[in-house]
Amino acid sequence: MTHHCVTRSLWLAAGLGLAALSAAHADSGRMMPRDMPASYTQECAACHTAYPPAMLPARSWQRIMTGLDQHYGTDASLDAATVNQLNTWLQAHAGTYKRVAEEPPQDRITRSAWFERKHRQIEPATWKLPSVKSAANCAACHAGADRGDYDDDNLQFPAGLSARQRRAWND
What we know:
Blueprint: H1 3-26, H2 38-44, H3 58-66, H4 80-93, H5 113-118, H6 124-127, H7 163-169
């Protein structure tokens, strides 16, 4: 094989590897899609974490968007154009990988099997700390939640966590 062919093969292999890595990352649910509509931040993040769409399957997002008048006990109604824009974006970026294939009870991310598995060592009292308030407040522990970054290596202890609770997080 000539030097030119070897070089070309290496570049092709590197390109395919990067493409596979990008595809895996895009469906990892870890990062917020770059094309996030401003209305998602303005409307959704005004009350709670603006969750990456890949955290729920498309059917869950569809039900959430058609039930905004009763959004987990709150009327979060939006005009039709905004609902359409957000629903289209959520559907395009909804989770398709194994972890979110199953729709969680009440379409709640915090009730999904993967969420409960990842947070099984968190004591119920932790969710009730004034700095946390509920399991839906991802930013209490995940400093990058607003960017869709939930990496375990970037956790922060919420205010009010006891020394015993801190030790449990480090085991």
